[in-house]
Amino acid sequence: MIKAAIVGGTGYTGGELLRLAAGHPQLSIQAVTSRQAAGTAVAEWFPHLRGHCDLSFVETLPEDGRGMDVVFFATPHGTAMHQVPALLDAGVRVIDLSADFRLRDAEVFAQWYGQPHVAAEWLGEAVYGLPEVAGDALASARLVACPGCYPTAVQLALMPLAQAGHLVDAPIIADCKSGVSGAGRSAKIPLLLAEATENVKAYGVTGHRHNVEIEQEVSRHAGHAADITFTPHLMPMARGIHATVYASFEAPTGMLQALYEAHYAQAPFVDVLPAGSHPETRSVRGTNICRVAVHETRPGRVTVLSVIDNLVKGASGQAIQAMNLMFGLDESAGLALPAALP
Amino acid sequence: MIKAAIVGGTGYTGGELLRLAAGHPQLSIQAVTSRQAAGTAVAEWFPHLRGHCDLSFVETLPEDGRGMDVVFFATPHGTAMHQVPALLDAGVRVIDLSADFRLRDAEVFAQWYGQPHVAAEWLGEAVYGLPEVAGDALASARLVACPGCYPTAVQLALMPLAQAGHLVDAPIIADCKSGVSGAGRSAKIPLLLAEATENVKAYGVTGHRHNVEIEQEVSRHAGHAADITFTPHLMPMARGIHATVYASFEAPTGMLQALYEAHYAQAPFVDVLPAGSHPETRSVRGTNICRVAVHETRPGRVTVLSVIDNLVKGASGQAIQAMNLMFGLDESAGLALPAALP
Amino acid sequence: MIKAAIVGGTGYTGGELLRLAAGHPQLSIQAVTSRQAAGTAVAEWFPHLRGHCDLSFVETLPEDGRGMDVVFFATPHGTAMHQVPALLDAGVRVIDLSADFRLRDAEVFAQWYGQPHVAAEWLGEAVYGLPEVAGDALASARLVACPGCYPTAVQLALMPLAQAGHLVDAPIIADCKSGVSGAGRSAKIPLLLAEATENVKAYGVTGHRHNVEIEQEVSRHAGHAADITFTPHLMPMARGIHATVYASFEAPTGMLQALYEAHYAQAPFVDVLPAGSHPETRSVRGTNICRVAVHETRPGRVTVLSVIDNLVKGASGQAIQAMNLMFGLDESAGLALPAALP
Amino acid sequence: MIKAAIVGGTGYTGGELLRLAAGHPQLSIQAVTSRQAAGTAVAEWFPHLRGHCDLSFVETLPEDGRGMDVVFFATPHGTAMHQVPALLDAGVRVIDLSADFRLRDAEVFAQWYGQPHVAAEWLGEAVYGLPEVAGDALASARLVACPGCYPTAVQLALMPLAQAGHLVDAPIIADCKSGVSGAGRSAKIPLLLAEATENVKAYGVTGHRHNVEIEQEVSRHAGHAADITFTPHLMPMARGIHATVYASFEAPTGMLQALYEAHYAQAPFVDVLPAGSHPETRSVRGTNICRVAVHETRPGRVTVLSVIDNLVKGASGQAIQAMNLMFGLDESAGLALPAALP
Asked: Which residue in A178, A197, A201, A291 has the most chain D C-beta atoms within 10 A of its own C-beta, making it the best mutation to test that interface?
């Protein structure tokens, strides 16, 4: 049994870690922190966890987390980097769901997140935790930086092309649609049902933090600086991301379907749909699955459709998938069940 | 042209007053106040009003509202009662969309709204502004207390029985369903789309401020103390109220349909549906119409279905309907257009 | 491993049986029939089951179902009664999710379902499969009639009162709100998103098949003919039922909370909330749990709030719960995981 | 008063024509046809039109439409082309909301719509009815082909660039998101609320009829063959289109905002938002307005955001706007009111 704790458990990713832990045979959450909710039962914040989680939120981890096998950070950016070094020094492994260790370059972090990085010495050690790419590096990782939700959907759409060297150095468009839970469980007027229902809007069109993260990772695998225009949109729904990725490729016509199928043949959580398909976000709701469809629309041009649940494969599920690999468990442990439809 | 001002214009009822005014041939909104938004253009708060309203919010009304024909209060309860007396003394008529002047008894107000009433001397003068009941009293009213949204739907369902003396002195159930805009444009977690979508829940089951308002008014017209159990429920939608009202009546079987049709024959905004109908909230969305259906379910028992748009007939539309009658205009002025469906 | 088959697998309850079976350690679905979809892979009808169910629909069960331990009927009413007797005669146990064996009286069935009952001789043998009431009778049952979705929510709200003899012989109101999946996966205009979103409406106000089912069962346990006015409403959401039940009781004031807690202390799927609570349908979405809250609103009068997922506790989950009890398994097998929120 | 008739009035665009006509001071709908609903009151099909439209559907137009000033076709494609020539010959003007007269080339029509064009001789005469482009040509038009909903949103986003000669001959991406009402009021399972809620999916990725229409029109104005990849997506909402258009331009950096503002300065229904804005579909719901925002994302590259109501500016409102211009009325007659929010 892996002994784990969660820092910052009142948000949606914290709640999903707790939900998924309830169905994981080898994961035991021992403590979960929250400043605002300290002393309150978890089930009061998350009515669906009544009967499934008996913990109450605590102010800080007992013994500062020493004695845990792993600590998950489900905090807003800017928190983990302050606490992670001490945990790592104490031999506790860390999985950070926030953005603190995703970018390789501390200055780029400072520029996009508006604060200096206080643990830059750990950026080199952090493993960027997209399991389909990181693979074996996770087994020995002490610090895992979980990818953002949009970057997960976009990278899984592009990696087969990038890693095979087929990605042409031409502008790429990543037009992404997300449910509102991606904005977190925060009391803001634009996220009210009365404001967000029956509505679609883009945001951050001229610059979003996830754009730099996507370009960093795709460039690393494509062998050239990827030029990606990323546009996020808010959808009138709670969960789900649909990435529509437009790219140019250099390869014989008609071979991409086979390329994608082969690329993900061993990946338990990436499902390449048959040619001509259109994946639906609901088909992965609540699950760790990414469904991908590849459409060669014109000679040398491809539209890749990629859907995930932003809170699972885009956050907490991916974190547990990484944990499974870090501790030598079955990669799918606790993550095997299908979505409920409708 | 009626010169009007709005106190408290950043909420949904303020926005609806502005929207309806844009289509009203004889109403000119001269000023709209907001503490938090003073100095900001109305169209920044309400993107749909861009091009339809050139005002900016002001901190307080120019000349404290003197010179206006009428001032609308679209404030939370507890605000109007402080400002209304001075306006009335200055000869300005007032339409209060809040709860401050709805209850006849200052002590009952204090009990349910948690503060003493500071303008109790005006409670006797205030006209309870349900136009279908108040009728001619509105023509000379100086101060109109607009009914709550739930009370509007429930009273329109019960008044034909009550006023005809057919309402039996037995427990009445008013099971009501409302869209989330009824809770206002306030940044609260339970109102987030991610929390409120795909969800139904009751609230205030053992006591809600609208219960006492409903009982006060129905009792007044029924000739006995009405015993009404009112249960509000939150629906996963923005607008609309559906009241399902269960009552006992004393009258020959099968006569209620005709009774309701006759009762509302001259009411331009109450539409009694044919026997056997089930009204839909969407059919009145954005409009000032109440649709009612009467079902005699068992001998002496009736289920009345009543739908309104909580922000229009349940608030701002009703306020303008009252204004039309106060100023001798066509009762339907500015309120005549149908809903958009779907 | 229990060998099971499903008759009529393309609807929502069929899909939920398949989903839940994917997570059940002792249940193996061997075949699933559909006339319209015969020859098609299950995953084509249910995109969420891709990778979780390798079956294709078949026209009829192999060997007419002989050799199965149990056959589930997820068909519209009027189908099971034709096929069930032969299965029972062959020693195959049957769990019918349709209405065919819910009513005790064949004439009442004929009246409400518009066709004569062709297997009336089995009505006496059928166990009405509400496990919290049926209890041990399920262990030896050959034929189980799963309750309707509304009747499940309403009965779980009333049974503690009825069985304890506290239910007064006075009119009961069961005002119920359901997501649209309750109407099945059928291509009808009123169920379109464009028609059903942002809308609430009642239906069947003067008579619904579930009313007679509810009265039959509550009367049986209350010791007198229950007089229940049941009103179903359609909500703008996919899943979930909220029953708001108004009844009169004879018992000392303030004892109902303890009564309900004691009544369901051993029921793994009924969660009595703390006094003063308001259950939310989302908290049980995708699960077999019923959450109940009891409010004594006035002396001798109670409002009971009860929420379930109409497709799980109201249909397929309850069917599997019954199966677990029929075959001596853990009552919770395959049904233990929490809802996903948001 | 313009005497008009509608052919095919039971769909959403027919309903919107009737709704908008109810608020139009100079338009009188004299008859509306429907094969399936002949003899039924319009208000039975459209509950929101009760009290606003007293017509009943008829099988065919009285006198085959002779005597009308104008006939609207709100039929599926393939119907208007059979009936339009006789009307035109009789001197009746026609506004076709379907696709029959949008494409210039009868063979292209046959290829994309799967049937030969039977009135190809009228294709040259038809005016493509995007009023912001067609302008004066509408005044004398006898036959107007209303643009598709997606093509309207995309063209309004691109025309200022195209007509000014700034559009570079490079691939353009038009990633579009639409509410489900775009698919019509047809009883299909994928359009059910239970299927379409909480879901996003693309469709027609490798070819959609609107792609050819968009390319035809943009090419005509750009002066070169536009290469546009159009991807439609289905959103979990009833109304609204959001087009996100990615293009390359040749012009000094920073001048596009002014270009767009100048281009649409006289267009009453195109609202160019301030620099840095993100338009919301809800802000135009139920209205004829298109809101546009221009973002220069990288040197020489632009992302244009464009929102419309697919049933109004994308169909029936645009048809009435065209009619206003055909008959010399105020372009905004009957189309002036703002959206209702929330």
From this structure: A201
Select the residue of C173, C202, C280 nearest B201 (Cβ to Cβ).
Answer: C280
β-pairing, A270-272 with A290-298? parallel
Put simply, whether B295 touches C (Cβ < 8 Å) is yes
| DSSP helix/strand/coil, A196 | helix
At A3, phi and psi to the nearest 5?
Answer: -90, 120
C267 reaches A (C-beta below 8 A):
no
Q: Alpha-carbon distance B54 to B59, whole Å?
A: 16
Contact B338 D19 (CB under 8 A): yes
Minimal Cβ distance to C286: which of A289, A291, A340: A340
The answer to whether B53 touches B18, Cβ cutoff 8 Å, is: yes
Give the CATH H-level superfamily of domain D2-125: NAD(P)-binding Rossmann-like Domain (3.40.50.720)
DSSP state for residue B48 in the 8-state scheme: G
Task: Report the pLDDT value the prediction gives residue C206, as an integer from 0 to 100.
Answer: 87
The answer to whether the bond into A85 is cis (omega within 30° of 0) is no
- The mean pLDDT value of chain D amounts to 97
The list of chain A residues with pLDDT below 50 reads none
Across the range D298-320, mean pLDDT stands at 98
With beta carbons under 8 A apart, name residues in chain C contacting B195. 342
Q: Which of A180, A187, A193 sits opposite B238 (nearest CB)?
A: A193
Q: At what angle do helices D209-222 and D149-163 cross, to 10 degrees?
A: 20
Contacts of A195 in chain B (CB under 8 A): 185, 193
Q: Compute CA distances A204 → A229, A232, C302, D153, D156, whole Å.
A: 11, 7, 51, 21, 22
Class of domain B150-310: alpha beta
- In A120-200, at which residue ranges do the beta strands (DSSP E only) sit? 127-128, 143-145, 172-178
Q: What is the ipTM of this complex?
A: 0.97
Q: pLDDT (tens digit, 9 = 90+) per residue, D185-222?
A: 999 999 999 999 999 999 999 888 999 999 999 999 99
Whether residue A274 lies within 8 A of chain C, CB to CB, comes out as no
Per cent of chain D over pLDDT 70 is: 100
Q: Tell me the pLDDT tens digit for each residue of D52-68.
A: 999 999 999 999 999 99
Question: Residues in chain C with pLDDT < 50?
Answer: none
How many contacts (CB atoms, under 8 Å) link B and D?
90
pLDDT surpasses 90 at D226: yes
Residue in A53, A146, A149, A290 annotated catalytic: A149
Question: From CA C239, how far away is CA A234, in angstroms rounded?
Answer: 23
**Residue A340 near chain C (CB below 8 Å):** yes
Residues in chain D: 342
CA distances for D245 relative to A231, C29, D228, angstroms: 11, 48, 10
Summarised one tens digit per residue, pLDDT across range C299-310 is 999 999 999 999
Of C206, C246, C281, nearest to B199 by CB-CB distance is: C281
Angle between helices C149-163 and C256-263 (to 10 degrees): 110
DSSP string, A297-323: EETTEEEEEEEE-TTIIIIIHHHHHHH
Tokens of D12: 């959403």
Q: Is A153 on the interface with D (CB under 8 A)?
A: no
Distance CA D25, CA B60 (A): 38
Domain C150-309, classified CATH 3.90.1150.10, yes or no: no
**What residue in B sits closest to D185 (Cα-Cα)?**
B342
Do C47 and A283 make contact, defined as CB atoms within 8 angstroms? yes
B50 Cβ under 8 Å from any chain D Cβ: yes
Structural domain boundaries in chain C: 2-125, 150-309
